Amino acid sequence: MSEFAIENLSRRNFLQGSAGLTLGFCLPALATAAGGPGKAADGIVGASNFEPNAFLRIGADNTVTVFSKHLEMGQGTYTGLATIVADELDADWKTVRVEAAAADAKRYNNLLWGPAQGTGGSTAMANSWEQMRKAGAAGRAMLVSAAALKWNVQASEISVRDGVVRHAATKRSATFGQLAALAAAQAVPGEVTLKDPKDFRLIGKQANRKDSVDKTNGKAQFTQDVHLPGMLVALVAHPPRFGATVKSFDAGRAKAVRGVVDVVQIPQGVAVLAKDTWSAKKGRDALGVSWDESAAFKLGSDDILAQYKELAKTPGLVAKQIGDSTAAFTKAAKVVRASFDFPYLAHAAMEPMNCVIRLTADGCEVWNGEQMHTGDQYALAALFGLKVEQVKINTLYAGGSFGRRASKDSDYVLEAAQIVKAIAGKAPVKLVWLREDDMRAGYFRPLFHHAMEAALDGSGNITAWRHRLVGQSIVAGSPFEKMLVKDGVDAVSVEGAANLPYAIPNLTVELHTPTNIMVPVLWWRSVGSSHTAYSTETFFDELAAAAGKDPVALRLELLAEHPRHAGVLKLAAEKAGWGTTLKSGKAGERRGRGIAVHESFNSYVAQVAEVTVKADGTIKVDRVVCAVDCGVAINPDNIRAQVEGSVGFALSAALHGEITLREGRVEQGNFDSYPSLHIGEMPAVEVHIVASTKAPTGIGEPGVPSVAPAVANAIAAATGKRCYRLPFRPADLLA
Amino acid sequence: MIQLNVNGKTHQVDVEPDTPLLWALRDTLLLTGTKYGCGQALCGACTVHVDGSPLRSCTTPVSAVIGRKITTIEAIDANRVGKAVQEAWRKLDVVQCGYCQSGQIMSAVALLTKNRKPSDADIDNAMSGNLCRCATYVRIRAAIHEAAKALG
User: Fold this and answer.
1) Do A659 and A668 form a contact (C-beta atoms < 8 A)?
2) Residue in chain B nearest A398 by alpha carbon
3) I want to staple A412 with a disulfide (CB 3.0 to 4.6 A). Which of A88, A110, A201, A353 is the partner?
4) Chains A, B: CB contacts under 8 A, how many?
5) Domain limits for position B43
6) Which residues pair with A246 in a beta bridge?
């Protein structure tokens, strides 16, 4: 689509070595960057404000503003980034606020992605840790310099705490705001001294969310809430099948609806523009579009799965090869085989996709829960014939994403832009997807089939493991391909499988990537691990049972080289009372406990689930005990919150989540046919965090992968039945 | 013109009578705290109070609420229970993405107004129609208990 490409290290390489961050952070350059961040152009930055760098502003009113280069979509990034900056700055947490940074890859790139700004892969804390510490420390140093100058004392005698700079010997003090103007005139330090972690006052302690107030009084602004003068709301009639095109429609009938202003055909379908959402909907209902479906995709999920099962009988591209699996299988005392089916999944964020765009005299302006700043800037620049820097993006809160707003090809943003283009920019446009539009648009977690076999010797040792995966590539054809596809193997298809942590002497992981399936697919919270953790951890459990070994003991035996896996596994097992007898259920109820462990995005999570399976096969997950190692726990309460939410998100998929196609049409449309977990299904969750001094890694996604396998292993413990397809089906679990 | 009483004020709204209250609030009155999530009364994000009872505004035509007292998240702090619920939500940092939380809070306030000491089962019953894809349910439950405690 453009020259834009993500071209950095693979996520997996990062931190496995020396954690050597390549810092694009250069204080002097940033301090002079065109007018500073945020609203400089609007004249808000005055002489009395102090902006030591692109991430921080201190106002004369003592307000400390942290500019977040990452999207806040619920994962707590605003609070996490502010926690780091405020600690090094020794700010008063109450005076700290967070604003979205501008879209500008030069200042705000994701350091793990190269020259691109964006949020994803649970990278926000990992890539920002040093950068935000330095941003805060630089600000602190300049405030200290200002105070030393003002009071004519040595900088080394000055202390800072809670937003107040003090010189004890002369009993003088000043607030950040009082020093802001003078601090702004100080030299930006070339190097800064970071705190000794024992002196942290916020990191690892309690720092409440910065968005709690506005998200509990209706003031928080999401894309859906944007109203601009003269703005039109657009709903688009999308094809009923992927690849269908518009044959004809009745614009007149749509325009006859009160409030409808225009009807335009765009590559994505037919857009109805109206003064408000309801009128646009009524207009769209009246369109009567007929579609040319001759070239459309017409397979159903069953057809796709049947094709994948056939493919799984043949060797795929090798994603990982250790030892000689074939030889080991010929010598096996016992061979265990299993295969697994994973459905398409919708992200179903509470806020369906939407985007506001207007053309301006000097470019275009976007309002979006923006997760792929640079990619969307390039895509819009190409469509409108603008320079990338002429695309201004206002990043708003996103009402969830789970990967959906990290569009690899700017799909919904370009849809909004096509409408603006079709009306020649005569009005700002808010594209609104109704729930059904959102659920039927594709960009699903890909459907996958896994075929696995393992060889055991006479003592029950696992001597070989063969894992064959079949599913669409997420990154093929996207700017991420260059970074993530090597020798035809999409790393995200096999993540969590190709890096199986267990010490098994012969390991073969193969991948088939079908290219005839036209269903758009995308990353879904935890990406490849959303299926690989399930197949590997439930199959491992089955092997432990086949060998007559305790699932925790066998895991620990084979994790000697992986102390962080072992650490969370032991902690979760201990806190859950692994090995103790589970209280029995009521008559007819079967109860069980199961465990799983998985690393994703360089964070390690183990979970123990306790379940009750009723006679009719329905499953109640009673309790999930989680142990987490994500390095330094920047904001422990947010880590707990993310893991609690991950348990619910993963359970929602495991118990209910399934998008199916019938003759190419998506069968689900809303929460009646694609149910989401409700409060009565939410288990008790305990989260235990491993104390660590390692560099922090993400927690937005890593709590998800091991939930479903832990539950499946608990179901097996309760019923003796293994679940080889998701979501779980009560009919498979009848007493 | 349709006359609506929202948050203690009377508004004239120029919409068709079949327009769902949700869109009149959001697009006409610009009270955007009430959210669109499903349009089918399946998710609860659009919950408002009508004469003190929770109601899904996405499937309620404006014609059905003429002359009735509509309260939205923007005015829930005018009420003692509403304030207690907001404070509990903030103290426990319930929110994540926040998009469903207006609806969660409206349902929680309705519950606590009727039942000052709800059990977990009462909470599950009253809140089961309010979906949260971030699954903040553990904290929603805890915050309702916290608010109940604060209300005494």
Assistant:
1) yes
2) B97
3) A353
4) 186
5) 2-75
6) A291
